[in-house]
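Subject: Interface between my chains keeps coming out wrong

I've been trying for a while to get a sensible model of this assembly. When I model each chain on its own everything looks fine, but I need the whole thing in one frame so I can look at the contacts. Pasting all components below, labels as-is. Any help appreciated, I'm running out of ideas.
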Amino acid sequence: MFDYVVVGAGFAGSTIAERLASEAGKKVLICDRRPHIGGNAFDHHDEAGILVHRYGPHIFHTNSNEVYEYLSSFTAWRPYQHSVLTSVDGQLLPIPINLNTINRMYGTEFTSFQLEEFFASVAEPRAQIKTSEDVIVNKVGRELYEKFFRNYTRKQWGLDPSELDAVVTARVPVRTNRDDRYFTDTYQVMPLHGYTRMFERMLAHPNIKVMVNADYREIRDMIPHRDVIYTGPIDEFFEYRFGKLPYRSLEFKFETRGVAIAQEAPVINYPNENAYTRVTEFKYLTGQQHPQTTLVYEYPKAEGDPYYPIPRAENQTLYRKYQALADQTDGVHFLGRLGTYKYYNMDQCVAQALSYYRKVLIHAEELATTA
Ligand code: FAD
Ligand code: UDP
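Reply #2:
Try treating it as a single job with all components included. I did that and got this:
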């Protein structure tokens, strides 16, 4: 008899399984319907021997000391500061928009102070910042919004920025200094031997059994267990009782080239041209030395594997109905990006799982043993 079946072996599922097994001494089965562990962070060597991320580029960054320390038990790290160029008006310019971006784009020699004045002169102040359009035009005005954000967002989400919550484009800051880095978090590192290796170590505990190619719906009646931790799509768990929650999907096209380095930056964004949004060259991320190189192109689409919850009010309303149902469902706990319908980064999934373990599961276990 397992104490817990954990559905999904990504960051959320693997963290909770690890804590339950190694700290609380529980017997855990973790299953995934994919043929591997790691969820969307799964990486592997392709035919050319290059380490690639099967579900698109995953760059680890966090401000949480707790999350960094926790994961450091399972991997060594390689320092990595991510940077992105974006193709605008025939130039490749740094994004997030910063002093370098503007001076290169307009041929100006602004100082930071002058750039602040420039932004103030072109901004369209909005009394309330509600949508992904508000966030950007309020800071940098319409022209920059249209060149850098509007079309990328339409392509990525199939929606205009005005139809998406502010949180989406607010992920990308605007700066008046020359900092070209994509992230400024305290910890910016990549697992030295890859994500999959890290997950293997998280799950290598005698109290944890791992089953891949195993959909929870197929195995649940065969495996005696008490509680369930579910990190798949919450609407699917409840058989779409209130209708489908919208998720955005992607198609990934990989291309190996016979050169050591193929593009000028780890990621190049294409807001205004091509059907794909961005192209990533993995060797920048992993630091791998190899005479060839592999790139991935991301093509957004509506149908397919659910990758992104879509942050907008009507979806949140629908999610709340599922959440209320989840609250009434004894013995099942929902976590992760799909289980709680949140546009979470990897570190946020780990933080959520650690906190749920500490605040909810440990107490439930204590109550069960004293009852
Ligand atoms: P997932 O990794 O999705 O794991 C859930 C697992 O559950 C899946 O493997 C699925 O197969 C399994 N599952 C679902 N239903 C069932 C079922 N019925 N039975 C069995 N198994 C089931 N985050 C960052 O921090 N940095 C980045 O650079 C970054 N880049 C990203 C790029 C892309 C293209 C995408 C899509 C996401 C990116 N993320 C990034 C976000 C990151 O992928 C997620 O935050 C994280 O992987 C989510 O972990 P999770 O455990 O919640 O879910
Ligand atoms: N975005 C944009 N132009 C860019 C980069 C980002 O319009 O050059 C918007 C777009 O809506 C995107 C969101 O900002 O979905 C968040 O970007 P991020 O790079 O964080 O996306 P993710 O890595 O999660 O796909």
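Reply #3:
Confirming on my end. Residues 84-170 form one domain.
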